Amino acid sequence: MDPNETCNDGNIVDCDSSFSICLLEGTTVIIGGFDSGVPDTGSITGGILHCADGAGNHGQFVSCATHFLEGLGLSSCEKYAIQVYVGSSDIGNNK
Prior knowledge:
The model is unreliable at 1-14 (pLDDT under 50). A hairpin with a 4-residue loop joins strand 1 and strand 2 (21-24). By secondary structure, the protein is α+β, with helices and mostly antiparallel strands. Helix content is 40%, strand content 20%. The chain contains three helices and four strands, in the order E-E-E-E-H-H-H. Helix 1 packs antiparallel against helix 2 and helix 2 (58-70) runs antiparallel to helix 3.
């Protein structure tokens, strides 16, 4: 997925286009237009959306997402793949 695209794909199950966090049906977590490659059933995307909604700034978003991911039993590679895009995103920068 092109990093400049928004969440307008026809297969979207859950999406918040204001944060560009999407869950594509049967695929992976997408944050800020970047595909993490990590499979998701909605629980990861839902938790990250919750962090985005509650964050007062980008640092709070990254911290919340990092703590959330620690409790999921993901491999270190999966956590890293998501955290790279969480940290690179603009989420929380405009608050």
